[in-house]
Amino acid sequence: MISSVLILGGVVAAAGVFTMWKHISAKIRRSLIRRRLATLVDLANVTLVSSWDDWDQVEQYYDLSHDVVGLDFEWVGPRPIALLQLASSDGRCLLVRLHRLGGVPERLVALLQDNSVVKLGVGLTDGDAKKLLTDFGIHMSGLFDLRHLLADLRPHGLKRTGLAGLAEEFLGVTLDKNWHVRAGNWEAKHLTNRQITYAANDALVAVNIGLAMVLEKNEELAAEGDVEEVLHNLSRKLKEIATNFKNIPPARYE
After folding, report:
1. Closest CA to 25 of 207, 222, 244
2. Number of domains forming the structure of the chain
3. Element (H or E) spanning 228, and its range?
């Protein structure tokens, strides 16, 4: 009888230890995910396309098959869009200098028009979508404004709901929003490293903010799996949420 009690006690204790470790493990995993999402761009992960030869390399080696991407554009004054920025949750960024190509590659057109690919950003449904239509005749689809999630996560609102404000709130990072860079010459023969970093971060931070928002509301998604698996699960959940809002401007925050 005593041995049975001891065995039962050992099983209960082991179960308790396992439950406690699982809880600690999930907490550590969430911490690792948040740290990963708060990482700004590494120039080694940026692909800059300045010619059709560069694009041919992208066609061969760059994976554009993502469910969720960060998207942004840069241009100079009233001139056509000069730069398209695209980022994925794996930290890779694609910068395409449209003014140097003289148009938008067909594969990018297909992605921009694909309603099944969620494009994340702030204000995409406003100026960016209209600008792309005016400049290149492309109707974008699958757009999701990150501010849609604020009503649920921050019901009392935020003072700053632009990309930089959301980055500070959900990632704890400060974006370079220097006016001289933002309003710089995006049609220059060669972009500076600061311009490349600025542009890539705007796209990368957009997708990372979206994933961080989903994690805050759905911590159970980080309960199991490695970092890449958790990011994949967060992306799938974000796509599911975005499906209900795509292409709708967040009037509450306008």
Report:
1. 222
2. 1
3. helix 227-242
Backbone phi and psi for residue 178, each to the nearest 5 degrees, phi listed first: -60, 130
Check whether 169 has a pLDDT greater than 90: yes
What span, in angstroms and rounded, lies between the C-alpha atoms of 199 and 48? Answer: 11
State residue 28's pLDDT score: 86
Residue 103's domain is classified under what CATH number?
A: 3.30.420.10
| Full residue range of the structural domain in which residue 58 is found | 2-253
- Tell me what pLDDT residue 178 has: 84
Average pLDDT over residues 14-28: 57
Q: Which two structure tokens, joined as six digits, stand for 169?
A: 């709130």
Given phi > 0 = left and psi -120 to 50 = alpha, else beta, which region is 158? Answer: beta
Got the DSSP string for 14-34?
A: HHHHHHHHHHHHHHHHHHHHH
Q: Is the pLDDT of residue 214 over 80?
A: yes
pLDDT at 196 > cutoff 50? yes
Structure tokens at 33: 């995910």
Q: What is the pTM of this model?
A: 0.86
